[in-house]
């Protein structure tokens, strides 16, 4: 289900790269509660620096770089959770992804739980440690929802955001015919959270699925006029572009272009 450890180290830089992620069969959520020094976490467009009393959440699916900063020894509580523990929360609220929960915005029960664990970690019995771990796991999603919205904004500015949107659209357009094209596959490719994929689309005034459908419809209309496909059934042409339900395809095609697919083919030069 997970693990917790209290760590003291000299300042180091730790990184988890894509090749390591690809070889891991597990998906985890990590949380680091800083007891002394500072911890900088960079994952996707997120770039957070946690100080004493702050909590940083990051995940195992994307590359991450963590830099410890301190005058002497860096100390923190480190938690690892099986991502399945948060399946119900993520289904309702989106991914529990990289976030900074500062000491002044942390909910009181979580502050109390972490404070007790950090002070008594080496002396509490195992059963009590397990109970506190489970309490922390139940409080973590609640605390993440309470994070002020400014923490959700990328720290690298609008230029990087526009570049990432361009990368997202390039990825979609290059993979329009892929059956597994989805917001999750795009997030994995770009190294960002699923929630941030939806945020990028929203800022362009669209949804991921809406953009994919629109692009696929444009391709189908062009395909209907190709000499090599002129005698192929319309449903087969549509299926090439990911439309498996003929009736649903006919409906959205007419909504998009104002004419039926058959009429569109008849108007081809």
TrEMBL record:
Transmembrane segments: none annotated. InterPro entries: Homeodomain-like_sf (IPR009057), HTH_AraC (IPR018060), HTH_AraC-typ_CS (IPR018062), Tscrpt_reg_AraC-type_HTH (IPR020449). Keywords: DNA-binding, Transcription, Transcription regulation. The keyword DNA-binding applies. One of its GO terms (molecular function) is sequence-specific DNA binding. SUPFAM superfamilies: Homeodomain-like. Residues 166-267 form the HTH araC/xylS-type domain. This is AraC-type DNA-binding protein.
């Amino acid at each position: 289900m997970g693990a917790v450890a209290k760590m003291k180290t000299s300042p180091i830089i730790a990184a988890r790269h894509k090749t390591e992620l690809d070889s891991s069969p597990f998906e985890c959520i990590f949380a680091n509660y800083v007891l002394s020094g500072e911890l900088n976490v960079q994952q996707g467009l997120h770039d957070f620096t946690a100080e004493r009393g702050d909590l940083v959440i990051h995940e195992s699916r994307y590359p991450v770089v963590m830099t410890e900063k301190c005058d002497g020894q860096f100390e923190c509580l480190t938690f690892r959770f099986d991502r399945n523990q948060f399946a119900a929360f993520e289904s309702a609220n989106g991914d529990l992804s990289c976030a900074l929960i500062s000491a002044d915005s942390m909910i009181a029960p979580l502050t109390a739980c972490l404070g007790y664990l950090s002070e008594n970690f080496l002396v509490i019995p195992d059963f009590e440690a397990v109970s506190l771990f489970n309490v922390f796991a139940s409080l973590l999603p609640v605390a993440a929802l309470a994070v002020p919205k400014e923490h959700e904004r990328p720290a690298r500015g609008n230029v990087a955001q526009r570049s990432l949107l361009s990368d997202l659209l390039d990825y979609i357009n290059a993979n329009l015919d892929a059956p597994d094209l989805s917001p999750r596959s795009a997030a994995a490719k770009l190294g960002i959270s699923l929630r941030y994929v939806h945020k990028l689309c929203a800022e362009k005034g669209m949804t991921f699925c809406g953009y994919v459908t629109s692009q696929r419809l444009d391709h189908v209309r062009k395909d209907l006029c190709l000499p090599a496909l002129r005698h192929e059934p319309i449903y087969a042409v549509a299926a090439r572009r990911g439309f498996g339900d003929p009736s649903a395809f006919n409906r959205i095609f007419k909504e998009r272009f104002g004419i039926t697919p058959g009429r569109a083919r008849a108007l081809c030069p």
